[in-house]
Design the sequence.
């Protein structure tokens, strides 16, 4: 059984080519070493909905892509099907409290971003 260890928003570098800088947000999962990494469907069904809620984009469609982060396929992830300006507004204006906790992202004005999620094995 896996659970989310940490979730953080990573703002994109303005040094990126314009097209990459403004591309739709990505969700990347980091998974502990395992002989059987979680299947894409497990990530999508179990973890992605909660991650979207956490960043104010609840219910937004996502598409898995092996090339989400790099053309060579080294950085697969989920592409959130929301234009970046809307995603940023959603992130900065979503409920101040998420799951009873103060959101550390509330009210922050941020540049285009990706969401990095670290998983861990639950005891
Ligand atoms: Zn690569």
Sequence:
């Amino acid at each position: 059984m896996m659970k989310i260890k940490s979730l953080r928003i990573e703002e994109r570098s303005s040094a990126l080519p314009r097209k990459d800088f403004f591309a739709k947000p990505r969700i990347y999962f980091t998974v502990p070493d395992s002989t059987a990494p979680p299947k894409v469907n497990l990530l999508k069904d179990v973890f992605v909905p909660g991650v979207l809620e956490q960043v104010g984009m609840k219910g937004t469609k996502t598409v898995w892509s092996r090339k989400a982060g790099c053309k060579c396929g080294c950085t697969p992830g989920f592409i959130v099907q929301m234009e970046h300006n809307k995603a940023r507004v959603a992130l900065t204006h979503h409920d101040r409290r998420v799951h009873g906790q103060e959101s550390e992202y509330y009210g922050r004005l941020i540049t285009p971003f990706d969401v990095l999620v670290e998983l861990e094995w639950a005891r």
Summary: Helices lie at 18-21, 40-54, 84-93. Residues 70, 72, 74-75 surround zinc ion (CB under 6 Å). Residues 2-121 form one domain. The chain has one domain: 2-121.
